[in-house]
């Protein structure tokens, strides 16, 4: 799923004045304009805290280009700010004032204006100002927009009265919700998406005399006030002023109940006014009560708008509504079976309401929070990095509750189901427990650990008000050049299936009876189907090389490799399935590549009909946009193929209308719509959202707790794979002097990887946790541990070196090899390995989402560890380094000798890797010995266990045989050895213990 954009909401369009108006005299009594930005070079391109111009964006290619260009036609001075953009997510630029200087006071002026060279794109350009707080990054954001509907220079004038408070994103979650103008920190411009264009800007200045109405604003405590029939709603009306000063002039608010869907028999009409005299303190409130009447009839929800007419201040942005809750209808009866509740509710819904349930919008893309009710949205999501601010558990719950409150203003008060990509812990939330990525869970080879990590993730996610997780990924990764390979448990479908205990960790019992618990979430099996098999070079998405490409397989390969994990997921009761962006090309069916979001045979024929999946299918991020044809065709094709809910992060309005139009035109059948909505409603009922729509935050204290971090620590330790350990370098002893180097030794962001706080992740201290270096220092507090990232510090006098190398974060196709990435360690990491390992005994840890090519240095390395992406608990890595826990991990993917070997997987006819699938040395004190005699005994034990169905005994016999065989092989891995060795691990996972030992015996003879 793609990362979200942080869209600003639209406001009133401003007037555009022709160039001839430049230099016109100010109005009588108006102060002279005050320059903000002349773009002559007085403000540098830099970053805060200095005063600076800087760009930003959702992806690496989203920030616009900027330059100060000399122009003969510059409206003012010699230069203008000129730029170009081609934005897929979001992007723009800011001018922030110096954080270490005083804030600016704009309160004496009417508004802000600037020169804009339009291109006539017809797109909205959003303009935002930053008010209050400590600096530009901790201020309130107020926004408006203008339309680029003309070419050439125009002066855009924006009165401050046109700015509205951003409800979708606030760096501080709001200070006083009043545009004070006395502590201003600059402005920002958000450029249009989906159009390649350019712009020029000049002469930003403040103009005019302040509008007195800006000094006071009337606010209500909420836009929606639900109340049970017969109850009394209390609407609090308050007044707020600039700088919290007392009112200069009186403010009057007249109110009346009028309009809405409620009738005169449903409530007692009210009419009157409240006054706030001059001198009233800012924040003073008055309460208006609206009493509803009880008629004992079963009814849908009914609305009672409380219209406000404000004199002397700015009116609220929305008319508050009292809502009489729906009551007495069968679908509200928790005692009825889910199937009956669904049928009753479905029978009452209009086509538009059904279309709303099938629509999912991105949190930050909502024009206003009121769109939740206006379009009857079934779901809102946070894409990667789309977080409330501040990014705290409390803010998450408050934000989601705000969206849920909006659903109370709809007829049937159908709650939202809010979704996130919590793919290795609640990874969008700062301070959450970050688990190893799935590749590390696969290396741990422990279904119990997979379950526990899922359970901790579910508890932390649900405690913030989120009931739905877009995880786990059940892809079977077949080419480590794929940028999503770390989201896979491994290359063997049997390994992936064995780790699907994570689904129960998320959801609880397979029949869904645990879903309404405060520590469980709806899981998503993704990405259906064969996303891990896409061929290198087959992608047509931007500069991607593998991700979203084409998987070409026979039907037998499809069933055995890629479809197998989904059979198990359906049996486990997984609640939702997400199709892949990729295309499937089945050899011999003569269809060619078919996009999964349009594949009726797979989504409906196989998943729903043959496998019996009774949950709902949710599309990936804007994935239907990739289908051929116009947007109406995209909607029609995908829904008819079997999509039930469509993730249309930005296009939710047009999608909703087109879906209705397509059904009314007969191009999508009503039966298909009813099936989709029934599936969605069923999961909402199972989650208990109708009874408890708001966040249950009782578990919030467990987020990032010691108990949860202990689970992540155990998973990190179990995920470490010891590939080489010559001379018994590992485990380290606590009294050794250790020299630590490498780019990933002390970087929490790097060891957590992509999908951490943001979509792509980033280096540095991005959240709370323990780096590998910090874990080592805690494990051996009295030892002499020296850290030199680049190994520039002297290397004399140390017992052993530990060099932690690897990758920096990436996600999805951005991380594809060939898209600016390769599998080679960086030059700096290679140099650190060479220096440290040339000076002392050394262990090299590879922190990465996939194997790295280190064969040319393997001879100089005494111990080699595949650390994968261990998450925030570096203590777990230290546990195995210092012997607190034995190394037990095994390779979940084949470790290649060279990139030319890729793709290389267990079972290949030609198989000659550096280390085979399933390889993993141990630091247990006793490794089995005895040669072929011991293997014969273990073969008998394995056969007996298999016959008796004794899984534990069978696995133990195969594991002992594997360790014995590895001991003999040492570091010499030949093709004759690797093939049967890897096959043995696959046989073990499928319960064929005797055959596994036979394969290991074959490998032993080849060693």
From TrEMBL:
Its EC number is 3.2.1.21. It holds the Pfam family CBM_11. Residues 214-309 form the Calx-beta domain. Keywords: Calcium, Glycosidase, Hydrolase, Repeat, Signal. The keyword Protein biosynthesis does not apply. Residues 1-21 form the signal peptide. GO terms for molecular function: beta-glucosidase activity; cellulase activity. Belongs to the glycosyl hydrolase 3 family. This is beta-glucosidase.
């Amino acid at each position: 799923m793609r990362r979200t954009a942080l869209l600003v909401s639209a406001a009133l369009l401003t007037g555009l004045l022709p160039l001839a108006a430049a230099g016109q005299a100010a109005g009588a009594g108006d102060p002279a304009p005050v320059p903000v930005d002349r773009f002559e070079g007085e403000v540098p391109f830099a970053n805060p805290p200095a005063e600076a111009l800087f760009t930003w964006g959702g992806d690496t290619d989203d920030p616009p280009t900027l330059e100060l260009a000399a122009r003969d036609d510059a409206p003012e001075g010699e230069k203008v700010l000129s730029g170009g953009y081609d934005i897929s997510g979001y992007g723009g630029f800011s001018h922030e004032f110096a954080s270490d200087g005083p804030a600016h006071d704009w309160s004496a002026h009417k508004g802000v204006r600037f020169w804009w060279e339009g291109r006539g794109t017809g797109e909205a350009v959003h303009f935002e100002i930053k008010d209050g707080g400590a600096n530009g990054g901790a201020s309130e954001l107020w926004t408006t927009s203008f339309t680029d509907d003309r070419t050439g220079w125009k002066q855009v004038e924006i009165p401050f009265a046109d700015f509205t408070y951003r409800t979708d994103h606030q760096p501080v979650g709001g200070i006083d919700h009043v545009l004070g103008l006395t502590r201003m920190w600059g402005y920002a411009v958000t450029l249009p998406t989906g159009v390649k264009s350019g712009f020029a800007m000049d002469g930003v200045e403040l103009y005019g005399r302040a509008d007195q109405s800006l000094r006071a604003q009337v606010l209500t405590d909420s836009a929606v006030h639900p109340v049970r029939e017969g109850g009394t709603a209390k609407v609090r009306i308050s007044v707020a002023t600039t700088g919290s000063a007392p009112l200069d002039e009186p403010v009057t608010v007249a109110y009346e109940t009028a309009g809405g869907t409620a009738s005169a028999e449903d409530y007692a009409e009210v009419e009157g006014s409240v006054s706030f005299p001059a001198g009233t303190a800012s924040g003073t409130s008055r309460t208006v009560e609206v009493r509803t009447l009880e008629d004992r009839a079963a009814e849908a929800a009914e609305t009672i708008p409380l219209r406000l007419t404000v004199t002397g201040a700015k009116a609220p942005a929305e008319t508050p509504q009292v809502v009489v809750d729906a009551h007495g209808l069968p679908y509200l009866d928790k005692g009825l079976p889910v199937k009956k509740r669904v049928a009753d509710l479905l029978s009452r819904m209009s086509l538009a309401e059904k279309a709303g349930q099938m629509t999912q919008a991105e949190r930050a893309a909502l024009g206003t929070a009121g769109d939740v009710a206006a379009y009857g949205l079934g779901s809102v999501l946070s894409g990667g990095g789309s977080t409330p601010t501040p990014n705290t558990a409390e803010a998450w719950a408050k934000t989601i509750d705000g969206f849920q409150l909006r659903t109370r203003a709809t007829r049937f008060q159908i709650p939202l189901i809010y979704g996130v990509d919590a793919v290795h812990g609640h990874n969008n939330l700062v301070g959450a427990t970050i688990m190893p990525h799935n590749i590390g869970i696969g290396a741990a080879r422990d279904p119990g650990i997979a379950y526990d990590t899922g359970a901790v993730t579910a508890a932390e996610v649900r405690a913030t008000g989120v009931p739905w997780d877009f995880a786990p990924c059940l892809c079977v990764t077949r080419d480590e050049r794929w940028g999503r390979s770390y989201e896979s448990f491994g290359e063997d479908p049997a390994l992936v299936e064995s780790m699907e205990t994570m689904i129960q960790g998320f959801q609880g019992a397979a029949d869904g009876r645990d879903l309404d618990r405060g520590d469980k979430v709806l899981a998503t099996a993704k990405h259906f189907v064969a996303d891990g098999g896409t061929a290198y070079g087959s992608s047509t998405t931007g500069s991607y090389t593998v991700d979203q490409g084409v998987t070409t397989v026979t039907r037998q390969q499809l069933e055995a490799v890629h479809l197998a994990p989904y059979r198990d997921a359906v049996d486990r009761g997984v609640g939702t399935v997400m199709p892949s962006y990729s295309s499937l090309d089945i050899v011999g069916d003569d269809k060619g590549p078919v996009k999964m979001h349009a594949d009726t045979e797979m989504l409906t024929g196989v998943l729903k009909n043959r496998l019996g999946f009774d949950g709902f299918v949710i599309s990936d991020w804007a994935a239907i946009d990739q289908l051929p044809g116009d947007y109406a065709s995209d909607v029609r094709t995908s829904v008819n193929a079997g999509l039930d809910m469509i993730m249309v992060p930005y296009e939710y309005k047009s999608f909703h209308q087109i879906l209705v139009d397509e059904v009314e035109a007969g191009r999508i059948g009503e039966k298909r719509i009813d099936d989709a909505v029934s599936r969605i409603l069923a999961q909402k009922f199972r989650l208990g959202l109708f009874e408890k729509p708001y966040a249950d935050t009782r578990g919030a204290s467990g987020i990032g707790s010691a108990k949860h971090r202990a689970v992540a620590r155990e998973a990190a330790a179990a995920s470490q794979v010891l590939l080489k350990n010559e001379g018994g370098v590992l485990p380290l002893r606590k009294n050794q002097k250790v020299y630590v180097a490498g780019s990933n030794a002390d970087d929490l962001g790097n060891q957590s990887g992509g999908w951490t706080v943001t979509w792509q992740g980033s280096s540095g201290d991005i959240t709370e946790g323990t780096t590998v270096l910090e874990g080592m220092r805690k494990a051996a507090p009295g030892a002499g541990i020296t850290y030199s990232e680049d190994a520039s510090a002297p290397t004399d006098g140390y017992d052993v070196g530990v060099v932690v190398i690897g990758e920096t974060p990436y996600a999805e196709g951005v991380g594809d090899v060939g898209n600016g990435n390769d599998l080679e360690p960086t030059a700096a990491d290679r140099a650190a390995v060479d220096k440290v390992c040339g000076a002392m005994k050394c262990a090299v840890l590879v922190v990465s989402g996939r194997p790295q090519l280190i064969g040319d240095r393997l001879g100089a390395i005494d111990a080699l560890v595949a650390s994968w992406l261990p998450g925030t608990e570096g203590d777990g890595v230290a546990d195995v380094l210092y012997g607190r826990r034995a190394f037990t991990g095994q390779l979940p993917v084949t470790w290649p000798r060279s990139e030319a070997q890729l793709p290389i997987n267990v079972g290949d006819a030609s198989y000659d890797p550096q280390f085979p699938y399933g390889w993993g040395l141990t630091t247990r004190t006793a490794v089995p010995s005895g040669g072929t005699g011991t293997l014969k005994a273990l073969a008998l034990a394995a056969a007996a266990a298999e016959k008796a169905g004794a899984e534990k005994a069978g696995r133990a016999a195969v594991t002992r045989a594997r360790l014995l065989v590895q001991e003999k092989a040492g570091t010499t891995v030949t093709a004759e050895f690797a093939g049967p060795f890897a096959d043995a691990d696959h046989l073990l996972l499928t319960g064929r213990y005797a055959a596994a030992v036979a394969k290991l015996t074959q490998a032993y003879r080849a060693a």
